[in-house]
Description:
Elements: H1 2-15, H2 26-34, E1 40-45, H3 60-67, E2 77-82, E3 87-91, H4 97-107, E4 119-120, H5 126-129, E5 145-149, H6 151-159, H7 163-168, E6 172-176, E7 183-184, E8 190-195, E9 206-211, E10 216-220, H8 233-238, E11 242-246, H9 268-274, H10 280-283, E12 286-289, H11 303-310, E13 314-315, E14 321-323
Parallel strand pairs: 3-4, 4-5, 5-6, 10-11, 11-12, 12-13
Antiparallel strand pairs: 1-2, 1-14, 2-3, 7-8, 8-9, 9-10
Amino acid sequence: MRSFNILLILVFIFSCSNKKPTINTSEEENIKEKNINSSSIVILGTIQDAGSPQIGCNKSCCVNLFENIDNNRQVVSLGLIDVPNSETYLFEATPDIVKQTKMLTKYETKSNKEIVDGIFLTHAHIGHYTGLMFLGKEAMDAKSIPVYAMPRMKEFLINNGPWSQLIARENILINEMENEKAIQLSSSIQVTPFLVPHRDEYSETVGYKINGPNRSALFIPDIDKWHKWDKDIIEEIKKVDYAFLDATFYSGKEIDNRDISEIPHPFIIESLEEFKNLNSYEKNKVIFIHFNHTNPVINSNSSEAKIVEKLGFRIGKVNDVFDL
Length: 324
């Protein structure tokens, strides 16, 4: 009995110690193989706000996943790694922020930090900011994490709990952004927010242009329709090296229980038509992201996924890395 009690004490001591586990998971091996030596973007999630499988879903796209969990089905997020300065940044604070932060800090091997150096928010829909809750008193109780937000988004956080508590306790520090005004993160990395049309019940919605030492990227996880934007998406794709674009639904046929006009997004089939005249080099810049749980392209073996790739476009996958 005495030996058993000693064993329990040892388990308790080491179970929550600061020493990092040495277990090599397949995910860790995958990260090591990436061998990031330069500033980069990494995909940390590709799924629409409500996740996959989705609550209340009894369709075939969900049923098996409740029993056979796919750990790659994380809500949409990008990580930015500034290698020379050993800093990392998250784009979106998703409900999967715990795992995504851990994934990102594993890529940045020169630092022992367990939290990122800043978080960029796009808007106030559940998949894009609610992960901030894990920075609060009930969880990490973080210290002054910079959070970049537009004016309405800032006001939403200040005036509504529990987000207001994060600010009052200085778990987060809000850095207010301006439309089209660049934020210089380092001598070689800058981030510029730009407004896009979306369902702005609580905040405005932005996409981002990320400029690195050698390459640049667009990040537009949510937009109503390309033609509603005051910019030409074709021209914007041509200006960058990567374009991470909203691909929530493959087509309108996926949603048979809701009025899809109330949740507008560019269908993939619409984007394929919109982008059809791009040359092969430009098409290869397009990386589709933000997939609803019903979107067949999540399954890389689906006929829809094969059509997208045959036409020269890419489907975003967790742990894909893009040099900046």
